């Protein structure tokens, strides 16, 4: 059982009930760690919820959220499988990732490619549920996704690229609902990118020593002893850009109050972050599931008004 999991695996009891072969494929798609699917889904939800009400007569907005959630689970899994195929040699050299199914040899690269294709087929089903223009927007992310695993080899700030990739749901969800107010969408997306850089910098704190030994880049290494200030800056920038999006959409100062809960939550993360404690960093990273929900509620309150 333990061979199939890494230190930050969740739902260990549920994983234990799976046959060992299925457990490996579930771990390969990170089904034991749903936090990534939530972090991929929330920007999709923000785009949909801020773009317009989900309670329209045809129920399109609500059904779209469900489809995007299914797509987020499938495509996050597909992205992780692709990342593990590309990074197998590096993963073997990092303590936290050495037990991953491809890195450990429990799943062959050929089998991983097949599993990747299956997950992409699920994503294709979701893609076909979108409007044609939204389909084009969604497909435009594939180039970003394909290059991401190599960024840690080429730059000391791969989290910036991840931000572009992992929050692409904002323009996808927005365009699926409406084709106008693109400046609002751009501000919402830019804020989401900074939010992602912030939380993934927190996540990268767990691997700083191993990353330095292997010779790959991360924002946690680049920021060094200024990592808390860096995360605070990313989060502050995110809230400022979200406020700009709300302002451009409503021109109502009171609309900015909707951002207070998520701003307070992000501030709590920064104030309680201990960069020297991996468990603390993992907990603060996972807390962004709640941050995403709070932002979704803020978008819903403005978009449905």
Question: What is the strand and helix layout of this fold?
Answer:
Blueprint: H1 12-16, H2 20-28, H3 35-51, H4 60-86, H5 88-91, H6 101-104, H7 109-127, H8 132-139, H9 142-154, H10 158-166, H11 169-177, H12 182-204, H13 208-214, H14 219-223, H15 227-250, H16 260-272, H17 278-286, H18 288-303
Helix pairs in contact: 3-4, 3-11, 3-12, 3-18, 4-7, 4-9, 8-11, 9-10, 10-12, 12-15, 12-17, 15-16, 16-18
Strand/helix succession: HHHHHHHHHHHHHHHHHH
How much beta, percentage-wise?
under 5%
Determine the oligomeric state from the structure. single chain
> So how many helices?
18
Q: Radius of gyration in whole Å, from Cα? A: 19 Å
Largest sheet: none
Into which percent range does the helicity of residues fall? over 70%
The CATH H-level superfamily is: UbiA prenyltransferase
CATH topology: Tetracycline Repressor, domain 2
* Secondary-structure arrangement, i.e. CATH architecture: Orthogonal Bundle
Assigned CATH class: Mainly Alpha
Mean pLDDT: 87
CA-based shape: globular
Tell how many strands the DSSP assignment holds.
Answer: 0
Query: How widely separated are the two ends?
Result: 49 Å
């Amino acid at each position: 059982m333990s061979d199939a999991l890494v230190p930050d695996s969740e739902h260990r009891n549920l994983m234990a009930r799976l046959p060992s072969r299925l457990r490996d494929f579930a771990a390969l798609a990170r089904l034991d760690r749903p936090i990534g699917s939530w972090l991929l889904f929330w920007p999709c939800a923000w785009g949909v919820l801020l773009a317009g009400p989900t309670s329209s007569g045809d129920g399109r907005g609500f059904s779209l959220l469900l489809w995007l959630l299914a797509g987020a689970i499938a495509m996050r899994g597909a992205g992780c499988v692709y990342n593990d195929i590309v990074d197998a040699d590096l993963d073997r050299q990092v303590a936290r990732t050495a037990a991953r199914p491809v890195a450990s040899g429990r799943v062959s690269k050929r089998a991983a490619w097949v599993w990747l294709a299956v997950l992409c087929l699920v994503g294709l089903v979701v893609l076909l549920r979108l409007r044609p223009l939204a389909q084009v927007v969604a497909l435009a992310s594939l180039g970003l996704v394909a290059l991401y695993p190599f960024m840690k080899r080429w730059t000391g700030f791969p989290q910036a690229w991840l931000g572009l990739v992992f929050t692409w749901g904002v323009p996808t969800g927005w365009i699926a609902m409406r084709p106008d107010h693109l400046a609002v969408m751009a501000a919402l997306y830019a804020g989401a990118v900074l939010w992602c850089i912030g939380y993934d910098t927190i996540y990268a704190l767990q691997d700083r020593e191993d990353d330095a030994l292997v010779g790959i880049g991360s924002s946690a290494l680049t920021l060094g002893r200024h990592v808390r200030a860096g995360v605070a800056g990313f989060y502050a920038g995110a809230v400022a850009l979200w406020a700009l999006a709300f302002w451009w959409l409503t021109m109502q100062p009171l609309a900015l109050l909707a951002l207070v809960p998520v701003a307070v939550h992000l501030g709590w993360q920064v104030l309680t972050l201990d960069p020297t404690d991996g468990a603390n960093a993992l907990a603060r990273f996972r807390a962004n599931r709640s941050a995403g929900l709070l932002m979704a509620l803020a978008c819903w309150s403005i978009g449905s008004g």
